[in-house]
């Protein structure tokens, strides 16, 4: 029905030849994807996504992830939930257990229950949800580096949610204060690559948080503001591959020098909603490579 284009992979054959690393991701079909409200600075109701292109980009991303050896699952979207194509936000999933999101904006709140239903049906155990009326949690604010969870707060997620997350996952949570409204989730300024390296845009964080991340990450790969605004940090790492929506020559060289292969998959229609590749994929075991 939809025109499926090949994603712009670097040498597709060399990608599919790579050995799988057991990574699994949940995606959500863009059947009801649209920009009908504005809850981040990228969204503009006058600039709506194209349906055919959204489908072909989404299929391209799915193929790129699978080409890197990951397994993907697709959930159907629900009418009226136009941001449901960004399932990274619906929960934090680690070690077979999940903590459901509590969305900041009314427009996205119903997504959490659909996400939790999919996870439960597929064998993941739900941890005690956040109940505090003042607390919010969105999965886009949570990543893992080494053994710790690294979580943003300031725009969507609240600091109080970090404490709850630490308790239910029995894990250290490194808290990062976000300060750039364009990079409103942590996954837009921080992308761990392995236990030493992470792509990062520290200008998105307050001074104390920068110091904390630089103490934690031995080999920081700092991107320019332009690269950050290109969603370079909003990428998905699968073994030694990083799937990105765009990559400058300089960043590609820095990644290749570290033995990491860049796979480019264009998702321009989704950028209109302020979401990139990491937002479009829920990692079903945060912190695995
Ligand atoms: N339009 C969505 C929102 O504003 C985009 C979600 C981006 N997700 C992410 N993990 N960065 O909530």
UniProtKB/TrEMBL annotation:
Q: Which UniProt keywords apply?
A: Hydrolase
Question: Is Iron there in the keyword field?
Answer: no
Q: Please name the GO terms that the record assigns under molecular function.
A: amino acid binding; dimethylargininase activity
SUPFAM superfamilies for this protein: Pentein
Q: Which GO terms describe its biological process?
A: arginine metabolic process; citrulline metabolic process; positive regulation of nitric oxide biosynthetic process
The superkingdom of the source organism is Bacteria
Q: Which InterPro entries match?
A: DDAH-like
Q: Which residues form the active site?
A: 185, 279
Q: Which family does it belong to?
A: Belongs to the DDAH family.
Q: What is this protein called in UniProt?
A: Amidinotransferase
Which organism encodes this protein? Streptomyces actinomycinicus
